[in-house]
Amino acid sequence: MHATRPTAEPATTGLMEVRGLSKSFRGLQALDGYSLDLRPLTIHGVIGPNGAGKTTLFHLLSGFLRPSSGTISFDGRDITGAPAYRVARLGIGRTFQNIRLFGDLSVLENVMVGMRRDDRASILATLLSTPSFRRREAELEAAAMDLLILFGLARARDRPARSLPYGDQRRLELARAVGLQPRVLLLDEPNAGMNPIETRELLELIRRLRDELAITIVLVAHDIPLVMGLCERIQVLNYGRLIAEGDPASVRANPDVISAYLGTARHA
Ligand SMILES: Nc1ncnc2c1ncn2[C@@H]1O[C@H](COP(=O)(O)OP(=O)(O)OP(=O)(O)O)[C@@H](O)[C@H]1O
Ligand SMILES: [Mg+2]
Question: Which domain holds residue 195?
């Protein structure tokens, strides 16, 4: 027998591995030395008070911001500083804390805009509107409809996105992100503005994305019960720093977490 790592803990298990990730905005340290080992097919939660750096973290992971320092790797590839479009193509999808939809486009069009197309092959076909282009569009439309059905939005397919109730707009944004076929999906406050029933349905939907579509989820939310009920692993940020990490029970019992949240409640 020789001394090796236990087989239950392989040396590299992270689908995303982040080390020492930091971002400062003119002296303000919004994120400071953040690390992550994201295991495939987990639902990973990031919580923390207002201004803790959660959205900044997602902007960095998705290439919307460049880090001041630190590294990000995805599926063994260094993607530090890669632009957002490339990060998205590699398989990291996201939604936004403030919904970003094409308000005048229909629900169906909003999903189709996000779907994968083979751009190089289809530009000429698009211009000429060839039969192969029309067939491809029909396939995309069918796939988009499948997503709308999954997300409970099929009946709204022809309505302008801006006319939907808020909770439906949130689900539409999620549907569009899923249409890009991400392997990792970053969800920034996906239940913001939803009532408890909508939130419970969303929770089931997020589980299905993981179980049926094999999407690994990273989720930011203020709603502690949602995060505790959904996530297998939770990190807590406060003033840009990780103050706790672990399973829901250990995070809930952590005195630093309790005081960070009591501190916020006092100022709320
Ligand atoms: N573009 C920017 N320029 C300057 N400061 C910024 C910028 N973006 C964020 N900040 C600051 O960085 C800190 C972290 O902000 P961030 O939006 O990441 O927090 P958050 O945890 O998402 O908060 P919330 O829960 O309110 O969404 C805050 O102090 C914020 O004011
Ligand atoms: Mg935020």
Answer: 16-104+179-267
